[in-house]
Amino acid sequence: SIVVTTGAGEAIQFSAVTGKRTRTLDKMTCSVYSVAFAPDGKAILTASEHSPVTLWDVKSGKVLRTFGDLYVNPGAEISADGNSVLTFGQGITSLWETRSGKCLRELNDGSARGAVARFHPGGQSIFLFDHVGKGQLVDLKRGRVLRKFDMGWPHCAQFTAEGKFIVIGSREGTVQLWDVRTGRMMVRLIHLNQGRDWLVVTG
Fold it and tell me: Per residue, what are the HEC states of the chain?
């Protein structure tokens, strides 16, 4: 299945095979900012303004769990094992237990308020960054900062499958590849001529 969010506050599920709409989740009050499938494909996590982050049953479309309210630029992610949920927005990043909906930890720091958060594939840490370029790799168990990054004006992030590198998309029109262990930027791609050309900077 594929899930698409709309500015009208809907999360729509489509069949990846036929392209047909299979379900529209209950209409939210505001725009849906992010969606994510649970690893087993049986549930969908959505984050929208002025509404709780919500876990939905794919088959029935019913609400399984909610994870607190976020009001500005909300987002959410589910861990690779499906046991934990991250919610982030308005300077608050929280870790939740999926099964119970219990908040396990709030991960906030003045230098990186968690405008966006990503689970590391290993499951032991998360990457937080704010929209002024302060990033942190944080140990989930202790809440301790393992590494700090200074990366311009980031907009989105994704770990490589093995978790050794993280790719950052910037609002300045760059794509950056960072070594997670050392905190060193390995490659920067700078788009030129409205994206028709790219300048590659290494080292």
Answer: CEEEECCCCCEEEECCCCCCEEEECCCCCCCEEEEEECCCCCEEEEEECCEEEEEEECCCCCEEEEEEEECCCCEEEECCCCCEEEEEECCEEEEEECCCCCEEEECCCCCCCCCEEEECCCCCEEEEECCCCEEEEEECCCCCEEEEEECCCEEEEEECCCCCEEEEEECCCEEEEEECCCCEEEEEEEEECCCCEEEEEEC
